[in-house]
Each structure stands twice: as structure tokens, then as C-alpha cells.
Amino acid sequence: MLTWLRGMLVPLQVGADASTYLYYAIYTLLFVLMWIYGLRLSLYFTMRKMGKDMVRLEGMREGAKAKLRDELAKYGGDPAVIKGQVDQLVTSIMIEPVSMDPKGIVYKLDRILKTYENYFKSRVASLTPNADKTTRQNLSNLVEVGMALDYLFRYVRHLYTSAKKEHDFMSSVILQMNLPQLMETADAYYSSMGSFTKGEVIGDGLGPLVASKIIASNPVKLVDEETVFSEMPYDGRKLVVVRAEGPGGTVGRPGEAIEKLLQLYPDTSMVVTVDAALKLEGERSGEIAEGIGAAIGGPGVDRFMIEETATKNRVPMYAVVVKMSEKEAITAMKDEVKNASDGVIARVRKLIEDKTKPDATVLLAGIGNTIGVR
């Protein structure tokens, strides 16, 4: 620092004029100010930009709540009661079971998830006395969108307010790094509201759509809550196809359904799951990939059940997935994804031909949300 100051004073030693002196004085002052207040200025502009994103996120949350209130009010509910109930619904929480002792945690989580799902479904039913089952399922999906946007807003507001309150530059940098992904997720959820309101097929319905195409006009039976299956001949084999019961917005109970079907068909030679998969940046929407294991998302309960029962019965598991973005998965199904369904059926047929013998029994599960899929 002292060396730098000596360099600044050299012009004075050789007879510099007043303007040169003034120039170096201003330059020195600006340098000192930036050195002392630079981080604060950077924090100010960073927080200002993030504040605009937070305002937009709050608008999404309030827009989702207003849309939910309007949709619920169409089916005979009291608008005043609906307003208060919507605020309670979107802020409701589910507390995961303690994980210090992992033994049995999957079944505890399964029970909590079912209780929580029944909790808000019953609340939706009480607010929509004139709605049918399909409409209530779709409205339940709309409630989940409102819950997601509400949580995202409260989470971002917490980080933003904490950084602003403590003048914490590092916290603001961390939020700035994560905010684009959080806003992208929020945009995806907000864009999905139209599809859930209209009952349109969404990208995540790829698995049930494939199952529906294969089942065609064959009769279906209920195997578990909101989950159906159909048995049919297929390329000299017996094919058992299971999926959630449409056209309402539900994913059914694929884990429990496959457990029951493997008991019902103990000679099953293979299990094939078909589902949507999150693509990486640069990958093409509608791209098909196949592999080994159970293709199913969510908290992991259904996947555990499928893996557990397939392993116990020594049945190999194969998977076929179609790649798409998060937004594509929860909004109206794009043509690229819809057209991929025929390619998936061809892949499944090839798997069955290559991995099983004639007269074998194959279990195919179309995993995903059946909204709009009949």
C-alpha cells in the first residue's frame, strides 16, 4: 500500500500542475471507497436484482392461490370458507419419520404419505360437494401446485431476508447461484396450472399412455386404490399391464399393485417399468433410453416395494424411459414426447422377445400421472 502511495505522489515531486494533482486525488479517493464499500455496493445491487425475482415469485404464489379458489368455488363450495381453507391447505406440512433407526422407515413413510394424501383429498372433497371423482383428483393436483409455489416463495424469502438483515455477502452469493434453478422450477409449476385445470395429458403421463395404448379395448380390473391392470396375449406370451386409473390426476399405488400381481402371477419372467425421466441440458426431449432397475420417481416408497418384491421372487427388472424437462413433465404433453410412445412400445416388444421365451408371463407397469389418459 505504501509503495502504491509513493507512486501516486511522483507527479508532485516533478512539478505536476493542479489538474494532475486533482486527478490523482480523485482516483485515490475512489480506490479507497471501493476498497472499503465495494462489497456493500455489490451486495446492494445483487439484493436489488433478487428482490425483483422474489416479487415475481410472490405473484406466482398469489396467482396460484387465486386460481385454486376460483376452481374450487365452481363446485358448490362457500367462497368465504374456501378462501380460508386454501390458505391452510397450501401451507400444510408433512413431517417425515425419524431416521436414526432406519429399520422399517419405508413403511412408516408409506403410512405418513397415505395419511397426508387422504388428508388433503378429504379437504378438497369437503370444499367441492358437486364435483365428481375425476375433477377432485385434478383439483388435488392443483392444490399440490399451490403448495409447491408457496414453499418455494417462503424458502427464497427466508434466504433473501436473512442475507439482507445480516448484510451477509456470502449468503447472497449462494442465493444468487441457486435462484435461477428455483425460478425455473417455479415457472414450471405455474405453467402447469392450465393443464391440471383443463384435465390435459401431461408429460409425466407418458407411462400410463403407453400402457393405455397396449391395453387398447381389453377389460381392466382394479388391483389397488386408483390402480388397474389388464391381462392379454402378446407375441406368444401372457402380458399383464398395470397403470393408475384415469382420467383423473393420480399416480395410483404402483408399488403395492406390483406386489399383489407378482403374488397373483408367481411365474412372472420379467418386470418392465415405463416412465418419464428428467433430461440433462443438451439432451433432446422425447429421447428414449432403456436399462435395468425400477423406473419410478417420488419419495422412494413405491420403488422400494417393487425392488423388494421383485428381488424376493427373483424376477429381473427392466426399464424404458423417455427424457423431458421438469416443465415438460408437468405441463401439456409435447408432440415429441407423445410421438415417443410408439418407440417405447417397440422397445418393450424387443425386450420381451429377447429376454423371455414363448408362453412366459411379463409384467409391464406404466408409471406416471394419468390425468387425461383413459
Account of the 3D structure:
The chain folds into 3 domains: 2-43; 47-198, no CATH class; 203-366, Rossmann fold, CATH 3.40.50.1470. The chain is globular. It has 11 helices and 7 strands. With 374 residues, it is α/β, with parallel strands linked by helices. The chain has a 7-stranded mixed sheet with strand order 1-2-3-7-4-6-5. Strand 2 (227-234) and strand 3 form a beta hairpin. It is 60% helix and 13% strand. The protein has helices at 2-13, 18-73, 79-90, 105-127, 133-166, 169-198, 206-215, 254-264, 301-312, 326-330, 335-355, and strands at residues 221-224, 227-234, 237-244, 268-278, 288-292, 317-324, 361-366.
Instruction: Give the class from helix and strand content and strand pairing.
Output: alpha/beta
The CATH homologous superfamily of the largest domain corresponds to Peptidyl-tRNA hydrolase
Using the 3D structure, state the CATH architecture of the largest domain: 3-Layer(aba) Sandwich
Amino- and carboxy-terminal Cα gap: 75 Å
The CATH class assignment of the largest domain is: Alpha Beta
- Element-by-element helix/strand order: HHHHHHHEEEHEEHEHHE
The helicity comes to 55-70%
Unreliable parts = none
Could you say which overall geometry the principal axes of the C-alpha atoms support? Answer: globular
